[in-house]
């Protein structure tokens, strides 16, 4: 298999004049981008970085971050992209844990980098750090065309998973796994040559990385949006003729709610994809009606194994995550058994596991044998998600094993409750969790952000009249101003359980 560096060179040779990347006034063809990347390869070498070293990057989605990503692939350097919102302590952890030899930052992260305990060589973009090398100076220079120094078996990237109670875990991935995941992404989303996508999912997240690599393999255009803003996103979708959108459900929701949405030219958008969280039935129908795409894909996966399953017609079967991806095999096994052979019958709920033999799979966490022991068993990855297969062999993901609400001895999926509530026209957003109760152990509690006035009684009647089983109905409904979410739009149910939410103001609630 080709490594990623040779893949980039092949794209530049195939269509050197195709538009590769857009970032504000920066518009680079593949030939021009390869020249810039070659200069960066030389610049990283001048900083002392060699094949096999690791470079931490804390940057927004700008052309510098994308170029550095590709320069690392060419040079055989493992890129370690981290959240640009990271604190100084987190920056220190990432650099020390990864064993990085250098760090790159921009204006969004420079204060944290300066305040961190790291004294590594630094590459900066549109900002200054004492003694740092400036990206602008490096790419302004000339350098010979870079030659790929990595093989398909070299490490390409190390992503860090989100930490909850423990430190984040490093997920190292090889060139061959990254390329296999990208090729499957292209095929499963029916993406054409010279496609264009909105580069808004962060490059420290597997969705953002896949969008960048997919566009480059297709001689497509990666349109940078450094920080999500609805008005800017809608403008770029229209102006740059975006053909494929790949977002978390929260961002689709926000686009639809923006006042500019109705007047935006969406005619170029043919393919929609979502991942990172489930999409409620209500939002699914609204997005379908608004965009009327040719393809609407529900992608279920993770940083560890990019694709678990794919549903290419998300609207036809709401809630379904479809069938195993091109490089995958899935099972649902008894929760808590830790045994890949403890397969559940059709329709029975259990933990979803994925084979580690697939081309997209990682091989284990970075310096975390405890995490490997918990999640990797007999050639299978235990996802921590629960779900079931239906009669047609389609997978339904019902939530995290830890999020399952056990009330009066019955299991209740929060996703099922949320999808029911989302179908009420007054519900803009919602989340379901289990809160402690002396009699039931946990009671199903719904947190609702209202679009307009609605009472708890009306929502309860809506649930009673739906197909939701009676024991799954929310016994308590709390109206909130916002729901807590991660930087990439994942619902943080644990924050609601901990009481970290903002109730709706009294005057709004009264209305």
Features:
511 residues, alpha/beta, GMP Synthetase, Chain A, domain 3, 10-stranded mixed β-sheet, disordered C terminus, medium-chain fatty acid-CoA ligase activity
How would you describe what is shown here?
By secondary structure, the protein is an alpha/beta fold. The protein has a domain at 404-510: GMP Synthetase, Chain A, domain 3 (2-Layer Sandwich). Helix content is 31%, strand content 27%. It is built from 16 helices and 27 strands. Strands 12, 13, 14, 15, 16, 17, 18, 19, 20 and 21 form a ten-stranded mixed sheet that branches. A five-stranded parallel sheet has the order 4-3-5-6-7, sandwiched between helices. A hairpin with a 2-residue loop joins strand 22 and strand 23. The longest helix is centred in the N-terminal third of the chain and has 17 residues, at 30-46. It starts with a helix and ends with a helix. 51% of the residues are buried.
**Could you say what the CATH architecture of the domain at 404-510 is?**
2-Layer Sandwich
Which regions have little confidence, pLDDT < 50, spanning 5+ residues? 507-511
Radius of gyration: 23 Å
**Average of per-residue pLDDT values:** 94
- How much of the sequence lies in strands comes to 25-35%
Q: Could you say what the CATH topology of the domain at 404-510 is called?
A: GMP Synthetase, Chain A, domain 3
What is the terminal-to-terminal distance?
61 Å
Count of individual beta strands: 27
Question: For the record, what is the CATH homologous superfamily label of the domain at 404-510?
Answer: ANL, C-terminal domain
Largest sheet: 10 strands, mixed
Write down the overall geometry: globular
CATH class of the domain at 404-510: Alpha Beta
By secondary-structure content and strand pairing, the structural class works out as alpha/beta
Note the total helix count: 16
Measured as a percent range, the helix fraction is 25-40%
Domain AMP-dependent synthetase/ligase: 11-366
Domain AMP-binding enzyme C-terminal: 416-490
Keywords: Ligase, Plasmid
Protein name: AMP-dependent synthetase and ligase
